[in-house]
Write a structure and sequence with these properties.
RCHY1_zinc-ribbon; single chain; nucleus; 213 residues; Rubrerythrin, domain 2; metal-binding; mainly beta; 3-stranded antiparallel beta sheet; ubiquitin protein ligase activity; zinc-finger; globular; 7% helix
């Protein structure tokens, strides 16, 4: 028996998805015309191809087609499946073509950044000079670098490859992540600090490094 009309949108919530997101659809990548769980699934596969010349990232805004995971119907990107009526993502952004059933992340779309972020719109402000959103805790306490967040940067790879001097190896520091807004204590690194929650290096030190007692 078919589910009542009012129950169809909620069917399968948090029961489908990939390792990156809980959602009830897959996307068709416009760049290679293949089906993937999400843009991260595509990027991981595309950037693992044997020929480096074939490596590429999907342009999220260019996604046009999705496949409902409940009824396997391919259709134009939208929140509600045109065939079975299920809600393919409790959070849906028609600009980024982003779906996520886990709305506890407090997703929001920033028009100035041009992408969706997590952590709640009320907890962030957009710095037009940097071209990025920051925690409101940094509103009057961050160094502006024009378009600093709009470039692919080798710093993340340099951090992972740089050994720490013995004097700093056991030091801890408190950081605030600009991407997920989480505050964590991490091992201090002379180049940059990695968020323990989302693994981003887009972080700010909020307490100086200290040696263990």
């Amino acid at each position: 028996m078919d589910a009542p009309e009012c129950e169809r949108p909620a069917f399968g919530k948090m029961g489908y998805g990939c390792k990156h997101y809980k959602r009830r659809c897959k996307i068709r990548a416009p760049c290679c015309n293949e089906i993937y769980g999400c843009r991260h699934c595509h990027n991981e596969a595309a950037n693992s191809l044997p020929n480096p010349a074939d490596h590429h990232d999907i342009v999220r805004h260019d996604v046009k087609q999705v496949v409902c995971l409940v009824c396997d119907t391919e259709q134009l990107a939208g929140q509600i499946c045109t065939n079975c009526g299920v809600n393919m993502g409790e959070y849906f952004c028609n600009i980024c073509k982003f779906y996520d059933d886990d709305i506890g992340k407090q997703q929001f779309h920033c028009d100035d950044c041009g992408i969706c972020r997590v952590g709640g719109r009320e907890n962030f402000f957009h710095c037009k000079k940097c071209g990025s959103c920051y925690s409101i805790a940094l509103r009057d306490n961050h160094m502006c670098v024009e378009n600093s967040m709009r470039h692919h940067c080798p710093i993340c790879y340099e951090i992972e490859a740089t050994a720490m001097p013995d004097d700093y190896r056991n030091r801890k520091v408190w950081i605030l992540c600009n991407d997920c807004n989480d505050t964590t204590e991490v091992n201090f690194h002379i180049i940059g600090q990695k968020c323990r929650h989302c693994n981003s290096y887009n972080t700010r030190t909020i307490a100086p490094p200290v040696l263990p007692q």
